[in-house]
TrEMBL record, chain A:
Domain Transcription regulator PadR N-terminal: 15-86
Pfam family, one: PadR
Name the UniProt record assigns to this protein: PadR family transcriptional regulator
Automatic annotation (TrEMBL), chain B:
Keyword field: Membrane, Transmembrane, Transmembrane helix
Organism of origin: Flavobacterium hiemivividum
Lineage: Bacteria, Pseudomonadati, Bacteroidota, Flavobacteriia, Flavobacteriales
Positions of transmembrane segments: 97-113, 119-138, 159-180, 192-212
Protein name: Uncharacterized protein
Keyword Membrane: yes
Entry keyword annotation includes Membrane: yes
Amino acid sequence: MKNSQLYKGSLNTIIMKLLEENGKMYGYEITQKVKAITQGELNITEGALYPALHKLEAEGILDVEIEKVDNRMRKYYKLTEAGTKETVNRLAELEDFIRNMQSLVNPRPNLEF
Amino acid sequence: MKLTAQQIDQLFTFTRQHYVEWYDLQSELVDHLANAIESQWLENPKLTFDEALNAEFKKFGVFGFMDVVEKRQAVLDKKYNGLVWHHFKDFFGIPKIVLTLAMTFVLFTVIKLSDFKEWIFMGLFVALVVFSFYAMISNKKQRKKISKANQKKWLFEEIINHYGNLSVIATVPFNIMLQLLNNVPDLFTNNYWTVGMSFFLVLLSIAVFIIFKIIPRRTSEYLETTYPEYKLVNL
């Protein structure tokens, strides 16, 4: 992943947000979707994506579904009910973070003086 | 262009060669690689299967699939411990807690009234350890027979069969016991110590019973809830 240290903490939130919008998705689809949305700037590595998906599944945030597609099995991930609620919290948290970083990096001129 | 069934088989072999022994992980990685190869072909139809596969595999980094396997194992280890804990807590809810307390009380009374206190306690304790080892060995034998017939391995099944990291339960308490016997002279004459030791032995029996009996007996049930594909494959 590009600038992996910065993005690492947000990977789970990115996954949850995508699933919230798209219903169910499989691993490869997620990597492609992120690439498309960010116009190739953000590349989720496979070595980070699957561990994150498995962890979210174990935490009860995601549920899995299997479908037979072509001549292979496809594992779809989707948000559980608890996961949907958690997504709202995490997105709010991420938005706060973005806002705070923005004011730190780009402080607005202070007009009080 | 789509992958042929034969190429899918080749991908399964590829994951096996790269130390992914378990079907649950293999099938997910195979689908991932297959998708990736197919979309590479869309851009460059001249690529051979092997070239496309190697390019995709490189994206997993220098350790290949190891990261994915290790993290998956850690997640399932945790799930297993949670399962054991869930069963363990059962013995402290109504009505099983009556049984737990009754067993402690009976053991305490027997030790208190008997002239062979240490012998009774150590006898029961050794019986528990022997039972653990017996269960481990017979389970291993049985699995050997089955694994020849069925080639698909499931990671969570392996964790259940290796008892997570909890098989130490058969040996570690033994050392604690020896320490106590050597250092506490009134271990079986002081009432508090005796109650404590009785309770400890009951807790240990419950744990051994859960790990070596209850969970292995329900293995396929746990596999079905962990893997939606388990039923599909084992039809």
